[in-house]
Design goal:
The chain is an alpha+beta fold and 173 residues long. The protein has one domain. It contains 1 helix and 13 strands, in the order αβββββββββββββ. The strands form 3 sheets. Strands 1, 5, 7, 8, 9 and 10 form a 6-stranded mixed β-sheet that branches.
Length: 173
Amino acid sequence: MKRILIFIAALVAVAVVVAVVRVATSSSTPVTESGKAGVATIQARKFPGAGTVLVTATGQPLYAAEQEANGMVHCNGACNAFWKPLTTTGTPTATVPGTVATITRPDGSMQVTYNGKLLYTFTVDQPGKVAGDDFHDAFGGQKFTWHVVRQVGAATPAPAMGSGGGSSGGFRY
């Protein structure tokens, strides 16, 4: 009986390691949201409790990390398994006011920016939900605070009563 339990525990451990490696390697590819031929398109959409936020052509909310400024990319490797850079193969377009541009990531891909903020999608988001606003995490010793990106002039909604500030903080991957 003891040998069977040890064998089962070993199988479970191997399965967990394989799952973690699979997420960290295969999921780290940047996301290219396309309206046409790999060109990123940014739009605005209202979300309950989040207000009007920027979204991809497929409606995924867009986020930026406080720690990334002046075109400095800090979210790489394991970070990109959860926060997918919005990349493009051409000049990005937007249906919202503001400055849309690109920066070159360390891997050579072109990441879309909005008013200087590097844009990402969050793999935890579900359709119609914004799960990453005021989210705190850390990867490779770098701490991040993520915020959903609102279009220029859009109001920030007040936090719901008893929400604890909306943070899903403290996560490390």
